[in-house]
């Protein structure tokens, strides 16, 4: 599996529903706006219709589609695919009942879909479509849509509220992983090659670097280290494994953030994507910024159209 897929597989196996769509402190407003966005799509899908969710992750959109259909008294079925080795039915236990209504398939590239031509009434994607090469992904979207079938996508916006904070974490993780940095200190401490004073000195250096306000991941690591060190019941091997796992998770997180920054569309990229869709024969293609919350924050681009 390539590094990118591994990063997402690690992420989705950690029991998460959404990837990055909720702004801290704005959870309810953002969730409502997003639910309404997908609910509107369901209400325009014919009863008995089948919808395909591309790059589904752990099925955040697929779940919203099913919930909306139940609310609207509509009968729809949902298929959901992702390149990562997703297993929402195993890892997302709390949504078990709804998840069973969706057919998930992992290790599926949206540029090479295992479905016959004209098989879906609707195709959707949320912060996933833009991760794939656009010409092939659009060609596949157009191929699997039934005539007059519709599509709706939410994609990352380069200036959107989600992109900058996530991309900033790439640098934060670089600092944590640098030679002699916090993660090295923790591993060394557990291996007996680094003294506690060196770890404390690294802590002071980071506090100074961040003006006494440790950013989220760094603060979480300090909390985890405190816990790891106080667990005298754990033998040294288990504690050392904990530190190695920390490095692996940070590398995966950094890879995900890098991909997000690369995938996000600026105005000209959005115009190009629209053009690619029109050239693939998709009709009535529109795109516009998608805003959420009382502060009308820019969250992404919304694309819509039909075959
Ligand atoms: C930001 S997550 C979005 C997941 C989900 N739609 C959500 O809103 O929570 C991006 C997803 O795109 C998937 N992905 C990236 N490239 C892909 C491709 N070529 N084919 C299928 N999935 C892909 C990744 O594995 C990841 O799960």
Report the bound ligands by name, code or SMILES. S-adenosylmethionine
Number of domains: 2
Q: How can the largest sheet be summarized?
A: 7 strands, mixed
Give the neighbour order of strands across the main sheet.
Answer: 3-2-1-4-5-7-6
Question: Which percent range describes the beta-strand content?
Answer: 15-25%
The amount of helix comes to 40-55%
What is the CATH C level class of the largest domain, in words? Answer: Alpha Beta
For this structure, what is the CATH homologous superfamily of the largest domain?
Vaccinia Virus protein VP39
* Class based on secondary structure composition and strand pairing: alpha/beta
Protein name: Class I SAM-dependent methyltransferase
EC number: 2.1.1.-
InterPro entries: Methyltransf_11, SAM-dependent_MTases_sf
Enzyme class: transferase
